[in-house]
Predict the structure.
Amino acid sequence: MSDVQSIAAPLRVLLAAPRGFCAGVVRAIAIVERALEAHGAPVYVRHEIVHNRHVVDRLAALGAVFVEELDEVPDGAVTVFSAHGVPASVVDAATARSLPVFDATCPLVTKVHRHGARFAQEGRHILLIGHAGHPEVVGTIGQIEAPVHLVADPEDVDALALDDDAPVAYITQTTLSVDETRATIAAIHARFSDVAGPDVADICYATQNRQNAVRDLAQQCDALIVVGAANSSNSNRLRDVAASLGKPAWLVGDASDVRAEWLIGPHGPITTIGITAGASAPEDLVQGVIDHLASIRKISVAELDGIRENVSFSLPAALRRPADRRSVAG
């Protein structure tokens, strides 16, 4: 028996609330599932529908084919755009080929696109707060018919080759939180005299809620496990938030990544571990981590009180079932 297994005191497992799927992810997955039901396999999805291998693998088993570029989609094939959004050039290419398309772009991402387009029409220089190369950032830049300056932090703002009196507007990647963007937004206001930007309420509710839940969780546990994909921006930020509060935190794709030695702290066995999940991580992966911990050590499980999200986004009209239509109509 290992040292961890020999510990008599149960390990207390605390679950964050909210955690896991957000409304945009639920909608995107449902679009692929309904497209498969309505049209049969294969359905082609440009880019991972959401950043989680388990979700992608499950949909692939149902008949979804994931591609990186539109030219990999056969003529006439049903096509889905991922939750992260796509550049306007991709939309135009699909239209030129008359591809039947279902757009699974998160409505909150679409809202950012609209803000950017409106600010550009006003003649403002667009500052996009986000991470270079992220699919959402690539899509947003490609949706705005004007130059977009990507800034990740206040230093990037200071380095912009713009006059201080130039009219600017900022928009943000939705997988960042209010807290993450606060310093960069402050730097924009400090440097430029003519600034426009969205209300902070337009930053993704799910990102902020999950980060707030991690802060609450960190106050009550010795260490944290974040369930999510390595390429998931919001999952990585959850781990970063926990680490910034001085708590050991690990990002795991699933239970197979969990290590027994994590339960031994610098001063002896830990007593409480917190678990949360990124917005694209399904709840069954969380349960898998709990089951794995139970195989290592006796556990007790509790969930923190937290915000109960009741946000939902409607599906494209062509994919709604009769019950969905009645709900929307009502």
User: Anything to note?
Assistant: The chain has eleven helices and 15 strands.
